[in-house]
Design brief:
This protein is 17% helix and 39% strand. The protein contains 4 helices and 10 strands. It has helices at 16-22, 63-70, 84-92, 100-104, and strands at 5-6, 25-31, 34-40, 43-48, 51-58, 73-78, 108-110, 116-118, 123-134, 156-167. The radius of gyration is 15 Å and the shape is globular.
């Protein structure tokens, strides 16, 4: 098992667009005793309020939503390509119905600040929730966007300060 090394978020050198859109991530909230994770490919990283931040989106219909609402912190975990099937599984099955760790072989790890991430990840961002906002259809400037929500289950955006960045060599 390769250990994580802590790195200042500003020292990340990866292509953020590829990292989120193509490589995907697991959004995880809760404690090591009770948590849920989901696959996501929408989000971003940057600077806001003079802090390094990550933002991600969770629909209220997702099991992870309740964990995100209750938690003060969340993680974003990124994996090597060999874990694509596990990410597919975590994005297509609900934690209400299955044990995602057991079914995928992903091994949850307790973070130092009460978070959960995964041993097999190559990059983990530990985030402290700062803000949330529900997406509102009346604010879509491109009318095509609303078509992505046939069930009208508009995402909630969460912004978190990235206060710990863990990488593997």
């Amino acid at each position: 098992m390769t250990e994580f090394t802590e790195l200042p978020p500003a020292k990340l050198s990866c292509n953020i667009f590829k990292l989120i859109d193509e490589d995907w991530m697991l959004i995880t909230a809760g404690s090591i005793e009770s948590w849920n994770t989901m696959t996501a490919s929408w989000g971003g990283l940057g600077t806001l309020w003079n802090m390094p931040v990550a933002f991600c989106f969770v629909r209220p219909t997702r099991h992870t939503y309740g964990f995100m609402e209750r938690a003060e912190r969340f993680t974003l975990s990124f994996f090597p390509e060999e874990f694509r099937q596990a990410l597919n599984y975590c994005g297509s099955k609900s934690g209400r119905d299955v044990d995602k760790a057991k079914e995928t072989g992903l091994r949850p790890v307790a973070g130092t600040r009460g978070t959960v991430h995964f041993e097999q990840a190559r990059l983990v961002l530990e985030c402290r929730k700062l803000y949330f906002q529900d997406l509102r259809p009346e604010n879509f400037l491109d009318p095509g966007i609303e078509k992505l929500y046939p069930e009208k289950d508009f995402h909630r955006m969460y912004i978190g300060e990235v206060d710990r960045c863990l990488v593997k060599p």
